[in-house]
Every structure is written in C-alpha cells, then in structure tokens.
Amino acid sequence: MSAPLCSLTLHLPDEAATEALARQLAPLVSGGQTGPAGACIHLQGDLGAGKTAFTRALLRGCGITGRIKSPSYALLESYKISNLYFYHLDFYRFSDSREWLDAGFRDLLRDDAVVLIEWPERAEGLLPPPDLLISLAYAGEGRDATLTAYTARGQTWLNAIVPPPLTAPSPRQAPPGAA
C-alpha cells in the first residue's frame, strides 16, 4: 500500500458515537460537499469491533432505506440511489488472497461508486490503496477509530470531520442539606 497522507484517531465511547462518525462521512462520500461522489473505504478490526455497524450507519446517512444486510455469507451487498452505486464487501471468509479477483470484484472498484470493504487484509496487498482506511479497536466499553487517508480525496474528508466533543465527567451532586 502507498504511504498514508494523514491520519486521525478518535475515541468512540459507544455505538451512537460510531454512528455519528459514519453520518459525518456520508455526505462527503456521496458527493456534493467535497467533490464528486465515490469512495473506496477499507474497514479493519477484530470481530465485533463495529465495522458492519459503521457501514450500516454510513449507508443510512447516504439515503439507503430498507434492510441493510451484512455481506459475511454473500460476500457482496449492493445498493443504488439515483446514479450512485454502493458496494459493501466482506472478505472475512476468503482463505486465498486472490479469491476476490476470481469473484470478479475488481470491476466494482470504480471512482464513481462507494465501495466499502471489510477485512481488506484478506486480499494481502492485491487491492489498490483506499481513499480511507478505518481501523476500529476495542477501548474499554468503546472503540478507538483510526482514520488514515491514502488519497487526496480521503485527506479532504479527514479535514472535514469534526471530532466528537470530549465528555466531561458528571459533577458530583452534593448530599441533601449540604451548603
């Protein structure tokens, strides 16, 4: 993979924060705010780290309605809004790095589509660099999300993301009758 251009790490204390981050990214990848629609986003993380939850929230933020299924068994789920295609791929079940090529998925990697790939490391360097790599890691009850831009488009998106506010601990309440 080529060298990253920039990176941003955010703490996501809960699923709502993960969904909020995805909703911030949705208008950026679907076009209008920062240029033409289209994206290639790779999602990495352990099982249960939130890759599919993030993807569902991003697709909802882009206007996808109806059921959004995980492609764990089908390998690919596709959606369309107007003239924009969305492809959600999951390489978890691949045992050979070339399986994604044999399945014909290379044809889906177009600049004018939004392509989200879970478990890209299963393709062992055969994929072109993504616009954005999102790595999710367990951090206590929440997750740490590291977003790494590999293209100018990805860098533009990182510059547009507003980190969530830090939550301050709630003040302790004084006992009744205390002055």
Structure description:
Helices cover 22% and strands 27% of the residues. The protein is built from 4 helices and 7 strands. Strand 6 and strand 7 form a beta hairpin. Helix 1 packs across helix 2. The chain starts with 5 loop residues before the first strand and ends in a 19-residue tail after the last helix. About 4% of the residues have low confidence.
Spatial extent as radius of gyration: 18 Å
Uncertain stretches of 5 or more adjacent residues? 168-175
Order of helices and strands: EHEHEEHEEEH
Please indicate the percent range of residues in DSSP E strands (runs of 2 or more).
25-35%
Broad structural category: alpha/beta
Q: Please state the average pLDDT score.
A: 81
For the largest beta sheet, what order do the strands appear in spatially?
A: 1-7-6-2-5-4-3
According to DSSP, the number of beta strands is 7
Give the biggest beta sheet.
7 strands, mixed
Helix content: 10-25%
Overall form:
globular
Give the number of helices. 4
- Spatial separation of the terminal alpha carbons: 62 Å
Provide keyphrases for this structure:
alpha/beta, 179 residues, 7-stranded mixed beta sheet
